[in-house]
Specification:
This protein is mainly α. Helix content is 72%, strand content 0%. It has one domain. It is built from 11 helices and no strands.
Length: 282
């Protein structure tokens, strides 16, 4: 059984390397199209999160700044990660049906289009880290060696988005309504993710409703994958201590890795089970 799994993975990896050049070309194409006829070009990858952070900070600072130290940095950490997830999954939705003409003419691994969309969004995310550096300098946040460990939650989030993107891409081939539904889901997801508020503020709340505020906070901690990735990122950027050995960050890293792996498995299995029927619906 183990040998069979190893052979399958090895064969898949060899086929992936065979189309590596195509993946690079598709990523380059997406980046060029994104900034075509743009005066500032790739500089928008830095300006967009920076301007969004400024607007959100002005709007929410009176409500949340008192309980959240270095609120602009707290805000941009959550915003750039959630924006990557939202943008990459939105791009993945149309990744298969948007390349229907090519798929009808020649054989190309169908997953390569979804992977290229998510990877191009990852390139934009890496460029947007320039905005994070600017905010750290402007707010006096010291740079520490542990800041380099942000690669852990970033890779976890990338793997999570690949799995989710494959799932959405396959579903959209058969049900076009997913595109409209997903925009509502991401909007709700944004408000259920502590981007501009702190989930710790739910701990001592006594308010009641359909779901109590404290219960909502527990649900966000336990079942919201974006909470796991954003909180890891914030620990590694904003904490003065060695966050890697802190229990909250350590637990989030393991939970985030498991969640990313499970999503990738679900996405791959769903995509592989339905890919041979795509040609009938695109």
């Amino acid at each position: 059984m183990i040998k069979k799994i190893i052979r399958t993975c090895t064969g898949w990896f060899r086929r992936f390397l065979k189309y590596w050049d195509l993946l690079v070309l598709l990523v380059q194409r997406d980046l060029k199209l994104k900034y075509r006829r743009s005066f500032l070009g790739y500089l928008w990858s830095v300006l967009n999160p920076l301007l969004s952070m400024i607007v959100m900070a002005v709007v929410f600072t009176r409500m949340f700044k008192r309980s959240i130290p270095n609120y602009p940095l707290y805000l941009i950490c959550g915003n750039i990660l959630f924006s990557f997830m939202r943008d990459s999954t939105n791009q993945a939705l149309n990744s298969v049906i948007g390349n229907a003409a090519l798929l009808k003419k020649t054989y190309v691994p169908k997953y390569i289009f979804t992977l290229s969309k998510i990877t191009s969004c990852m390139v934009n995310f890496v460029l947007s880290l320039g905005a994070l550096v600017i905010v750290m300098v402007a707010t006096g946040q010291p740079f520490r060696w542990m800041n380099l460990l942000i690669i852990v939650p970033v890779v976890e989030l990338y793997v999570f988005c690949v799995g989710l993107g494959l799932l959405l891409a396959a579903g959209t081939v058969f049900f076009r309504d997913i595109k409209n539904i997903w925009s509502v889901v991401t909007l709700a997801w944004m408000y259920l993710t502590p981007i501009f508020y702190s989930v710790d503020s739910f701990n001592n709340s006594k308010e009641k409703g359909v779901v109590s505020i404290s219960t909502l906070g527990l649900i966000i901690r336990r079942f919201n994958p974006m909470y796991m990735y954003i909180q890891q990122f914030r620990y590694l950027i904003m904490q003065y201590e060695v966050a890697l050995i802190e229990v909250p960050c350590n637990l989030l890293m393991w939970r985030g890795a498991v969640c990313a792996a499970l999503m990738l498995i679900v996405g791959l299995l769903t995509f592989n089970a339905t890919k041979n029927k795509f040609i009938l619906y695109i």
